[in-house]
Design goal:
The protein has eleven helices and eleven strands. The strands form three sheets. It has a six-stranded mixed beta sheet with strand order 4-5-3-6-7-8, sandwiched between helices. The chain has a three-stranded mixed beta sheet with strand order 9-10-11. A hairpin with a 2-residue loop joins strand 4 and strand 5. Helix 2 crosses helix 6 (186-199). It has helices at 16-19, 29-38, 76-84, 127-142, 158-169, 186-199, 216-226, 244-259, 294-301, 306-323, 343-348; strands at 2-4, 13-14, 62-70, 102-108, 111-117, 145-151, 174-179, 204-207, 268-277, 283-291, 327-335. With 355 residues, it is an alpha/beta fold.
């Protein structure tokens, strides 16, 4: 199994070790919800009893798109994964991890909730940035409702204020979700909820922790009752609309984000060059990591190829878990100045080039 390599002779190398081979409210959430309700911050959606199980006499299928929007590093992808109950989008401590819209399919009784994980909304500079922000706003406009995720620790920042102003101009119902509330005391949460609702009266306000899963059952029950009646858009056993080739590229990029620092993570992109199915049921996947400068390429490869092997080993293990089969992953690194201004690279990410 490969750990990866560069685009020079001998840079590719197989990994020799490869072949040898609770749900419930977080303490404090209930206390925070009581004063919030008294202040007009309410959860007036469906109760769990309103969500009928498929096949029951009261069952009527419901389905809707829920755009998950917010500033970079608000915990959107972590929340989407927690609500889905499995990994459907990559996460890292670094901002701007998500670059395009990813749809996660969540079943709740007879309701199919399609969560649209969008890139963080920020002030764009590059062509890639503009495409990412456009994808985020496009997701909000196309959805049945928009769910604004706010890092409760960071509070009402200029970025959050700008996003709220943008949501106020739209016609979609907007919900507010204060995330990471396990890191604050309940009395600190109410003023933030009140301040945000003063800017835009949100139809619903929730206080959750994506990390500990506190408050997520209640949020899912409300979403299940809020999506409109109608047929499901995806088979109920689908988890995401992300193609496998793009999934492989994203898993590799996640490890690049986790294992490199400073300028490398946000100046790198990954493309799956080939995917070959093998007779033994395994898959060979070849990915190329593009960076902007030779110095970034040297950092990614590392001394004697150690860094790229580690990236490949971790990405392969993750892919084998997600795909439930053996994977042979080969990585190549190329420096390509200005890739984030190239229309072709942007389209390869599944983004619309808006110039």
């Amino acid at each position: 199994m490969s750990g990866g390599g560069g685009d020079r002779p001998g840079a590719r190398a197989e990994d020799p070790a490869r072949d040898a081979a609770a749900t419930g409210a977080e303490p404090g959430l209930a206390e925070a919800a009581a004063p919030a309700a008294a202040a007009g911050v309410t959860d007036a959606g469906a109760s769990p009893a309103d969500v009928a199980a498929p096949g029951s006499p009261a069952a009527a299928t419901r389905c809707g798109l829920v755009a998950v929007v917010g500033a970079p590093n608000a915990g959107k992808s972590t929340l989407v994964n927690a609500l889905a109950g499995t990994k459907v989008t990559i996460v890292s401590p670094k901002p701007q991890t998500t670059r395009f819209r990813i749809r996660a399919v969540v079943m709740r009784g007879a309701s199919q909730i399609v969560l649209v994980d969008t890139p963080g909304i920020f002030r764009p500079r590059r062509r890639l940035d503009r495409a990412m922000v456009a994808a985020a706003w496009g997701g909000a406009q196309d959805a049945d409702l928009a769910m604004l995720i706010v890092d409760a620790r960071a509070g009402l920042t200029d970025e959050v204020r700008s996003i709220v102003e943008g949501l106020a101009k739209g016609r979609r119902p907007a919900w507010l979700v204060l995330n990471k509330v396990d890191l604050l005391s309940p009395p600190q949460l109410l003023p933030l909820a009140q301040a945000l609702n003063a800017l835009l009266p949100f139809a619903e306000t929730f206080m959750v922790s994506a990390q500990t899963k506190g408050g997520l059952d209640r949020l899912l029950d409300r979403l299940a009752g809020a999506v409109p009646p109608g047929p499901w858009l995806f088979p109920e056993d689908d988890l995401s609309d992300l193609p496998q080739r793009m999934l492989a590229a994203e898993i590799v990029r996640e490890q690049v984000l986790r294992l490199t620092h400073q300028e490398v993570p946000h100046h790198a992109t990954v493309e799956t060059e080939s995917w070959q199915e093998r007779k033994d049921g395994s898959a060979r996947i070849d990915c190329t990591i593009y960076v902007e400068r030779p110095t970034q390429k040297a950092i990614l490869i590392g001394d004697g190829g150690a860094k790229i092997k580690d990236i490949g080993r971790r990405a392969r293990a993750e892919l084998e878990t997600l795909l439930e089969r053996r994977v042979h992953l080969f990585l190549n690194v190329k420096d390509r100045p200005g890739w984030d201004e190239e229309r072709g690279r942007i389209r390869a990410l599944g983004l619309e080039d808006i110039g």
